[in-house]
Design brief:
84 residues, globular, DUF2624 domain-containing protein, DUF2624
Length: 84
Amino acid sequence: MKIFENIINHKINTITAEELLKYAKQFQVSISRDHAKQIANYLRGKQVNIFNDSDRAKIIKEIAKIAGPNTAKEVNKIFTQFTK
């Protein structure tokens, strides 16, 4: 199971705006292209573990500062789908 967590975390740490938009569409989540770019730029290169609740909460708080609380909630929905 740990290998899947590593793969998903690596994807989050290297995600592009286009990939984020693709996942948003797949999970029926609304994110604008501009916010996707800002979020992807923020996440790229970070070593986050979305399976860790406190790490994920920190990331969502930072995303809320970048793109607003509504967008942060939408991104959290995507992260939640990845962790199921």
